[in-house]
User: Fold this.
Amino acid sequence: MTSSQPYLTGHYTPVADEITVTGLTVDGSLPPELSGRLLRNGHNPQPGVTPAHWFKGSGMVHGIRLRDGRAEWYRNRWVHTPALDGAPYMTPHGPDLTVSTAGTHVIEHAGRLLALCEANLPFELTRTLDTVGAYDFHGKLRTAMTAHPKEDPVTGELHFFASSPFPPFLTYHVADAKGEIVHSAEVPGATAALKHDFAVTRHHVVFVEGNVTFDPTDRSGIPYRWSDRQQARIGILPRGADGARLVRWFSIEPGNMPHIANAYEDGQGRVVLEGPAVDREGFRLSWNWWTGAPGRGAEPASRSYTRRWIVNPVAGSVDEQIIDDLPVEFPTLNGNRLGSEHRYQYAVSFPDEEGYGGYGVVKYDRTTGARRIHQAGDARMPGEAVYVPAAGATREDDGYLLTVVSDLKQDASQLLVLDASGLDRIATVHLPRRVPAGVHGSWIPDDGTTDDQN
Ligand SMILES: [Fe+2]
Assistant:
């Protein structure tokens, strides 16, 4: 293992320190309604540290503060967890859920900022990205927490789950709009399959188990491996207190489905979900890249194509198809459509395994079938495009896409603000340093509290 590990080079080269810079240069016109912070998490090992797996790199959150048409500051902070100091995850008493990279996502719920990694408890951050500590919902969360919780736009509830390689394999939790856990239930019939993301519809919770499952013989640093014997499945349970025991599992085609763009019930009572998926070979290429193994692809998601599953609970059947030929990952949408039928879906495009195509921000119109791409440009890689609704928006795509671009030629980064309607660039915020390619993030709008002062 050397520093030539793919996840420590090029766009992914970590930064060596924490900085704060105020008064950023802006080209174009920042919409004054964008008052808040864009936060972006990712794996950024400390200098001299070479993790065995990309996912094991310590989490670092990059933040950009916008207000009144200005970009007031940029700062980056490691999430200061026991893992950052080298503490072991496995102890004689089992896993220590506070030993987290906390490097996968950062969200806000009920006024609390949480940095997330799926094998651990969340870590609370301040508005200026200092680490408060592990957060267990006042003692009510005794499992890990997925890095992809879903905030219901209607109820304000936060739905999330814990996936474990050991029984109980799957636990479903709901926190109310005030951040109190009001429901926790084990989901019967789940297996040790990797479960990274899930979906919530108006009436159901949807889990996805692919072919990647726990394998203690794996030595990659994260003990999971593709298994042809593992049956890929979708599990659907009604929302509500008794829902978990009513779960139904539906077999689907083999694959690994890291992210779900959205799910909803259609007019016929079927559950429709979409997201990027890889087949066996695509997973091999990704995993080899993530572990620095030989035979890796040029990029981690080069064979990741969007699939649609339509589950008919009455017939007990699933219609499944690949709906686009562009390799994409990091699907996003207008969060107000989460759980309901959506028209527009966004993603990041990747070069394919031969290196054709390029990085870009993609918009799908699911009504017309149109696909539009904002090309990132030579040696430029955009991150996940976070959707922010415009003030007083009436159309689903009346809003903005915020993406942080890594620019290798300039050894720099910018925050791009795109018009979500046409993908035109509205403003560019020049960041004071290159921000390594990372994982997920969120827009945290000002909420009218004293937290807004910073
Ligand atoms: Fe993810």
Remarks:
- Residues 136-325 form one domain.
- Residues 104, 147-148, 196-197, 258-259, 440 surround fe (ii) ion (CB under 6 Å).
